[in-house]
Amino acid sequence: MEKTFAIIKPDAFAAGHAGKIISRIYEEGFRIVGLKKLFLSKKEAEGFYAVHRERPFFGELTDFMSSGPCVVMVLEAEDAIRKWRDFMGATNPADAAPGTLRKDFGTSIGENATHGSDAPETAAFEIPYFFAGLELL
Questions:
Q1: How far apart are CA 62 and CA 27, in angstroms?
Q2: 115 tagged catalytic
Q3: Mean pLDDT, the chain, as a whole number?
Q4: Residue 80 burial (CB count, 10 A)
Q5: Which of these, 32, 40, 56, 98, is most buried using a 10 Å CB contact count?
């Protein structure tokens, strides 16, 4: 079984979609092995997204991610990283396939409802950023 990291972003949380997204995660066959509701500080968001520090959207991204509560999760499934990326859909909700989370709950490239690790190395950084080993059940 593989683990991946996922976020229900502030836009989806504020719109009341967290419960619907979590329900769909279970329906899709994932096991949630870690789950927390957080309100990231700007500094915490900057640390998490440090890989994008030089990108032009970094300030906007970290402002958004520190704008309200979010839900961080560790998901487990066979081929979890690819499976979660497919289930989220394209970064731009307008380009996402029908039935994907971003198509159903995202509103723009910047406010696209969910985040997920894109590789095992990314998951290896992202999971312990938010979860200690004893918190993963």
A1: 30
A2: yes
A3: 96
A4: 24
A5: 40
